[in-house]
Design a protein that fits this description.
Layout (H helix, E strand, L loop, with lengths): L8 H22 L5 H15 L3 E5 L2 H11 L7 E5 L4 H9 L3 E5 L10 H7 L4 E4 L11 H11 L2 E5 L7 E3 L5 E3 L6 E5 L13 E5 L2 H10 L4 E3 L2 E2 L10 H32 L5 E2 L14 E5 L4 H10 L29 H9 E4 L7 H12 L4
Parallel strand pairs: 2-3, 2-4, 4-5, 5-8
Antiparallel strand pairs: 1-9, 6-7, 8-9, 10-11, 12-13, 13-14
The structure holds pyridoxal-5'-phosphate (PLP).
The site of pyridoxal-5'-phosphate (PLP) has 15 residues, from α3 and α4.
């Protein structure tokens, strides 16, 4: 059996090597390394795929979030409601811009932001909500958008883990996550569902004026070269990454399907194990399984993790320390009594290997190691 990895980007690359290598060489040959038609093509293809009006590529997913928040013209001290149960980038950029992260709880079943908790956290200073489609499953966008409309707030979707995920509204309309909020952000970090071979990110919006601002901010605040209308930053997707992503975007649906098939194998194997809760799926969202995450009930996680590691089965805790407990946010007033689900999940989640190249033999080995663990 091939060695098991959390994410097997190498095996995936080998299947598209000829095409990818040719695309990289063609960029080298063109000598256009920044911007140019390769980046333009990728940006257009991605825009069409996501079903957004505008797509602005940038250097990484963290920058995408930062540029999004800069474009909304928020003032220092303005409050941004976000889950605490997420990757640090989501909340870090809020603090970086001198805005105030307001951590709210997640639903313990979906792992995504709880609309009722959002409602309770709104104050006159609240300006934006950042739902995260954690592990590849959509946050309840219909409810979030309704709350935002009612209170005149912006919604920035953190879609770094859910590119390709379909969200269905109660009227039957289906949209890709990232195209629903005022702004959507994503990452092309190599292990993400649409991963580059380096860093990359993108920002989506249906608002043309906002798109203009996002583009300017990502480019030193300029529309016309050397005329800087506002303070921006330097955030670009390079042409080599765009060339790779152009190829991988064509495979994205198949990649997500491969993840779903591996997840279905796991779900089926764990269906009757009483100490495991498998990921929740409902009809409102597809699950693109950026992570396959279990909740453990009455089993010591460290001991299980050590057992799996010993058997050559990689495993991870995403994330071992939630945002509200990070030293980085020490100075903030945080009411932990409202974060009970976050604290509860942080102690019980464990993620198993999930990627596009998992083989049946590997899945059998992983699942039997887990099923037999408490026998
Ligand atoms: C990966 C990730 C980011 C940041 O993306 P980078 O490209 O690594 O900067 C932001 N939010 C979430 C939820 C992520 O998983």
């Amino acid at each position: 059996m091939k060695g098991i990895q959390m994410v097997d980007t190498k095996s995936q690359y080998l299947k598209i090597k000829a095409e990818v290598d040719a695309a990289i060489f063609s960029v080298l040959d063109s000598a256009v390394y920044i911007g140019g038609k390769t980046v333009q093509q990728f940006s257009e293809s991605l825009n069409e795929y996501v079903g957004s009006k505008h797509t602005i590529t940038c250097a990484n997913g963290t920058d995408a979030l930062q540029i999004a928040m800069m474009a909304l013209g928020l003032e220092p001290g303005d409050e941004v409601i976000t889950p605490s149960f997420t990757y640090i980038a989501t909340t870090e950029v809020v603090a970086l811009l001198r805005l105030k992260p307001v951590f709210v709880d997640v639903n313990p079943i979906t792992f995504c932001i709880d609309p009722e908790a959002v409602r309770k956290a709104i104050t006159p200073k609240t300006k934006a909500i950042v739902p995260v489609h954690l592990y590849g499953y959509a946050a309840p966008m219909e409810e979030i958008m309704a709350i935002a409309e009612e209170h005149n707030l912006y919604v920035i979707e953190d879609n770094a883990q859910a590119i390709g995920c379909d969200y269905t509204f109660s009227n039957g309309v289906t949209k890709k996550t990232g195209s629903i909020g005022h702004i959507g952000c994503t990452s092309f970090y190599p292990s993400k569902n649409l991963g580059a071979y380096g860093d990359g990110g993108a920002i989506f919006t249906n608002d043309t004026a906002l798109a203009e601002r996002l583009k300017m901010i990502a480019n030193h605040g300029q529309k016309v070269r050397y005329l800087h209308e506002m303070v921006g930053c330097n955030s670009r997707l390079d042409a080599i990454q765009a060339a790779i992503l152009n190829i991988k975007l064509k495979h994205l649906d198949a990649y997500n399907q491969a993840r779903q098939e591996a997840a279905a194998y796991y779900n089926n194997a764990f269906a009757n194990i009483e100490w495991i809760t498998t990921p929740f799926i409902d009809s409102y969202s597809t699950h693109v399984f950026h992570q396959y995450t279990l909740v453990l009930n009455g089993v010591n996680r460290d001991e299980l993790a050590a057992h799996l590691t010993e058997k050559g089965i990689p495993n991870m805790v995403y994330y071992p320390v939630p945002g509200h407990k990070q030293k980085m946010f020490e100075g903030l007033y945080i009411d932990e009594t409202n974060l009970t689900n976050t604290n509860w999940l942080t102690e019980r989640v464990i993620s198993l290997p999930i990627h596009t190249e998992l083989e049946i033999e590997q899945l059998e080995y992983i699942t039997s190691a887990i099923i037999n663990y408490k026998k």
